[in-house]
Design a protein that fits this description.
Blueprint lengths: L1 H17 L5 E5 L6 H10 L3 E5 L1 H9 L3 H24 L6 H16 L5 E7 L20 E10 L2 E2 L3 E5 L5 H20 L6 H13 L10 E3 L6 E5 L12 E4 L2 E4 L3 E4 L2 E5 L4 E3 L8
Parallel strand pairs: 1-2
Antiparallel strand pairs: 3-4, 4-5, 4-6, 7-8, 7-9, 9-12, 10-11, 12-13
Helix pairs in contact: 1-2, 4-5, 6-7
Length: 284
């Protein structure tokens, strides 16, 4: 609303006056900066030039400080509890939305506060579609359930994904699960400083392609104060991994008429490799 813009303009102008910021160049994150606010500030500060520093900030933000790593460790621990809870709840007859609601309650209980939670919670034929919000669909024997949990605690995001079978997996589901699991494990083993995002993508995606499969999304992404940031793990990115980066790897396979499987872990890049921060069962 304009009242909010007025208030914010007043606060910022007051702050900039106290800091004596009235000429030269000022950097903003253009993707997140309201245009109405920018116009208002420009009217009042005619000697300032404005620069979009989104890309530079994203590069700086990719390497986490020690206090940030502690916050990410905590959110990954709570995320793992969410996955363990989901696995206990998956059974014939329960609906996707019921599982989601109970998992959210457990995450909030662990976090000790209301917690934003993004989630793919899809089952049966819905798993062919890669992702989706939980629905009233009830689980049936033989279904697969993709449970992708993305909570935010103290300003930092976690991420995770497991695929759980209802009442025992078929031989074909087990075969596909083994392929995705191997791809994830090879990816985790390949995380170390100096490896490029495209190399990591090639290793993980290559494991599925070896069996004739692929997935229609990125292999992974960084996370922190946003849930998708550098390093972005996809075929054309030459971003180099550095110690202190935190990234998700999430290979999957989605086949119409059979089912979808996705597995995901969060990894901290260390001086000589990678440390997995998410710890929960991945078996079907």
């Amino acid at each position: 609303s304009m009242k909010a813009i007025d208030n914010l303009t007043g606060v910022l102008l007051d702050l900039m006056k106290r800091l004596k910021i009235d000429e030269g160049a000022l950097g903003i994150e253009a993707e997140h900066f309201p245009i109405a606010l920018l116009w208002r500030l420009q009217e009042n500060l005619r000697d300032l030039s404005w620069r979009d520093v989104s890309r530079s900030l994203e590069t700086l933000r990719a390497v986490k400080d020690e206090d940030e790593i502690q916050l990410i460790r905590h959110v990954c621990e709570v995320t793992s509890w969410g996955q363990i809870t989901a696995r206990q709840l998956v059974s014939e007859g329960v609906s996707e939305i019921e599982i989601y609601s109970l998992v959210k309650a457990k995450i909030e209980e662990k976090a000790g506060a209301r917690t934003p939670l993004l989630a793919d919670m899809i089952s049966g034929e819905r798993t062919w579609e890669v992702g989706g919000h939980p629905s009233t669909r009830r689980l049936r024997r033989g279904d697969l359930v993709i449970c992708d949990l993305v909570p935010r605690i103290d300003g930092y995001w976690g991420d995770s994904c497991s695929t759980i079978s209802v009442g025992g997996a078929s031989e074909e589901h087990r075969r596909l699960h083994r392929i995705v699991m191997t791809a994830l494990q090879k990816g985790i083993e390949s995380v170390r400083p100096g490896v490029s995002a495209m190399e990591l993508d090639k290793i993980v995606r290559g494991e599925l392609r070896r069996h004739g499969y692929d997935y229609p999304h990125h292999t992974g992404h960084g996370l922190g104060v946003t849930y998708h940031e550098e390093p972005r793990i996809y075929p054309s990115s030459n971003t180099q991994l550095k110690p202190g980066m935190v990234l998700a790897l999430e290979p999957g396979v989605y086949i119409n008429g059979i089912g979808g499987i996705r597995l995901e872990d969060i990894i901290l890049v260390t001086e000589d490799g990678g440390e997995v921060l998410t710890k929960y069962p991945k078996e079907l």
